[in-house]
Amino acid sequence: MTLDRRSFIKVLGSASGLALAGCAAQGPVGSTTEIMPKGATRRVVVVGGGFGGAIAAKYIRMLDKSIEVVLVEQNRQFISCPFSNFYIAGLMNDMSTLTIGYDKLAANHGIKMVYGLATAIDPAAKKVVTTEGTLSYDRLIVSPGIDFRNEEVEGYTADSANTIPHAWKAGAQSTLLRNQLQAMPDGGKVIISMPLVPYRCPPGPYERSSLIANYLKKHKPKSKIILLDANADVVAKKPLFMKAWNTYYKGIFEYIPGKKVTAVDVANRTLLVEGIEEFKGDVVNFIPPQRAAAIAAKAGLVGADKKWCPVNVTTFESTLQKNVHVIGDSSEAGAMPKSGYSANSQAKVCAINVVALMNGKELTDLSGINVCYSAISDHESISVAGVYTVKEGKIIGVPNSGGISPVDFSMTKAEHAYGESWLRNILTEMST
Amino acid sequence: MKQRWSMRVLAAGALSLSATAFAAAPTPEMISFACAGCHGTSGGSAGLTMPSLASQSKTAIVDAMKKFKSGERPSTVMGRLAKGYSDADIEKMAEFFSKQKFHPTQQVVDAAKVKRGADLQEANCSRCHLEDGKEGKDDTPVMASQWLAYMQMQMALYQSGARKMPEKMAEKVKPLSKEDIEALLHFYASVK
Q: Alpha-carbon distance A431 to A382, whole Å?
C-alpha cells in the first residue's frame, strides 16, 4: 500500500491524532506534530537503528559534521540476531553480550535520537511520520529490517509466534524458544522450519539447527531435531554444515530439504507441508517467509515482487522514491547476502554517497564486504567471506575471491575465537 | 552534478548505461570503511583476537595483505578477502589505516610479566619495534596495545612454522623461552 501525496496530506491535515484512530487496526499511529522543526541546517533522517541504520547515522556525522542526523529507532536497546543462537541453545546465560544502547553513539557523534516507530513516509514532502511526531528531512535512509509474510501460511498470525516462536528477531522471541527447549523432556522432538530464499541471514537456520543439536546431544540425548528446509538444498556453507551434521549429530539431527510449510496448526504444534504432510513437534520453531519491514511497503519503496526494495547500487537510493535510500535486509543488493555485516558495509557506501550528493560532489563506486561466522558446535565455527563490487549496474562478488572455510575443519577452533571478536567489533562500532 | 543528471536522463532514454557509469573508482575511505566491521572504526579493534590496523605503517599493511593474498601468511577469512583487492586497492587501504590515530586498549596484564617483557624488548626487539612497539618501521607492525589473545595466536602460528618469521626476528626469538615470549606480549599489550 503506497501512501500517495493526497492521502498523506489528509493524514497530516487532520486536526488531532484522534482522526487517525481509524488506522489503528493496521498498526501504531503516527503523531502529526512536527518534532525538531528543521532549520537551515541540512538533515538526514535514518529510520531503524540496527546493523545498517546505526552505522549510516554515525558515518554521515563522521564524514560531514555540518549535516544534522536524526536516528529513529523504536527500542532503547538493540539486541543482535547474530549470536542469538548461542543464547537459544544454552551457550550464553543471558543476552547481555548481544545488547547495546545508543547513548554513547549519540553523544560521541552528535546524533539526535528519536525513540519511536516510523509509521509513514511522504517522499514528495520529504517528511517521515513517527509515533513521536513528524520529522522533515533532506534525505532519508531507511534500514527497517524484515517483517513476515504471515498471510502466505494458513493458520499463522502474528500471535502464533507466542506458541511456535520464530526467534528471527532477537529478544523475547529468543527467550521463548530457549525456555521451550529447556522445558522439553528428554526424548522430545524439535522441528525447525525455514523459508525459501531470500530471507534474513542465509546460514542462520543451519547454525541454529547445529547448536540445538549440540544442546540435545549434551543434555537430552534421546531427543531428535528435524530441519524442514523449503529450499531444494542447503543454501549456505553447504559442505561445512553437511560435514558437521554427519560427523557430530548423526542420529539426533535430520535434514529434510524441499519441505515448504504451507499451513500451521499452532495449538497442536503441527506444521503442514504442501498441504499434505504433517510434522508435529514438542518444540516448533517456525521461521516464516519474509519481506522488507512494513514501513517500506507503506512508503512505496517495495518493488514489483512486493517483497524487497530495489535500489541504485551506488547510492542505495530507492529506484521508486527520490531522496529515500534503503539499506540492509530490506534492500535488493544483488550478490550481497541479507546479513548484519552486509548492512554495516552498505551503510558506509550509502553514507559516503549521500554526503557526496548533499555536497554536489562526485559519487564513488561501491566496495563492500560480508563476513559471517556460524557456530557448528560449542567450540567450533565456520565462515563465509566476500568482497563486493559493481559490474554493469549490479552488485557482484569480486571474481576469484571470497568463499567458505576449508572443509577439513582445520580452522574451526580459530574461527570460533574470531567469531566472538566479530560480534564485539561490529556491536562496538554501532554503539560508540 | 548538473551534468551528471542530464547525462543520466539522456542515458535512460537511449540505452541503459550502468548506474555507476558516472561514479569514481573506490576511494581509500570507501575501501577501508568496509574493514571496520571486524577491525573497528578507523581500525581500532575491540575484538580480542582481531588486530588494530590504526597507525600501522603503509608498508606493513601492504606486506600483510599481499602475503594473505598469496597464501604465504596463514589465515581464516583474510586470504579469501585479500583476493578481492587489486594492488591499487591495497595501497589505498594501507594509506587510509596508516593515517589513523594509534588505538590504545585497556587490558588485564600481569605486572611482573610486563616488567620482564620491557627488559626483553629493550635488549632484543627495540631496533625494529621502535618506541616500545608504538611505531611501525617499514614492514614492522605496531605491537603496542594489540590484544594479548591476538598476539598469542600469531605467535603460535610463528612457532608452528605456519607463519614465517622474518630472518632478523627469528634470530632474536629463537633463544627466548616460552615465558620470555609471554612476558614480551604482556609488555606490548600494556603499552598505551
A: 26
Give SS3 for B16: coil
Return the sign of the alpha-carbon dihedral for residues A147, A106, A56, A131.
positive
Please report the sign of the dihedral spanned by the C-alpha atoms of residue B31, residue B36, residue B42, residue B48: negative
d(CA B11, CA A44): 29
A28: preceding bond cis by omega (within 30 degrees): no
Per-residue pLDDT of A116-141, as tens digits, reads: 999 999 999 999 999 999 999 999 99
Q: Look at the domain A5-74+116-148+292-363 and name its fold.
A: FAD/NAD(P)-binding domain (3.50.50)
Model confidence, pTM: 0.92
Q: How many residues does chain B have?
A: 192
Q: Is A415 within 8 Å of B76 when comparing Cβ atoms?
A: yes
B12 within a domain of the structure (yes/no): no
CB contact under 8 A, A393 and B26: no
Sequence-separated (6 or more) residues with CB below 8 Å from residue A206: A227, A234, A236, A237, A241, A374
Residue B10 lies in a domain: no
Give the architecture-level CATH label for domain A150-288+371-431.
3-Layer(bba) Sandwich (3.50)
Shortest Cα distance from A233 to chain B (angstroms)? 24
Q: Residues A12-39: pLDDT tens digits?
A: 433 333 333 334 445 678 888 999 999 9
Q: Is the pLDDT of residue A2 over 80?
A: no
Q: Quote the minimal CA–CA distance from A252 to chain B in Å.
A: 30
User: Does A49 touch chain B if contact means CB atoms closer than 8 Å?
Assistant: no
**Which residues make Cβ contacts (< 8 Å) with residue B112, sequence separation at least 6?**
none
Please report the pLDDT score of residue A19 as a whole number.
Answer: 38
List the domain range (segments joined by +) for residue B180: 111-190
Q: Could you tell me if B35 and B80 lie in one domain?
A: yes
CB A346 within 8 A of CB A330: no
B23 touching A, CB under 8 A? yes
CATH of residue B140? 1.10.760.10
Whether residue B116 is found in the same domain as residue B176: yes
Report in angstroms the alpha-carbon separations of B116 from A125, B151, B187, B192.
67, 17, 8, 17
Q: What number is the ipTM of this complex? A: 0.92
Give the amino acid at A300. G
Residues in chain A: 432
* Same structural domain, B65 and B123: no
* 94-123 of B, contacting A, C-beta below 8 A: none
| Same structural domain, B81 and B40 | yes
The side-by-side arrangement of strands in the sheet containing A118-122 is A118-122, A127-130, A133-136
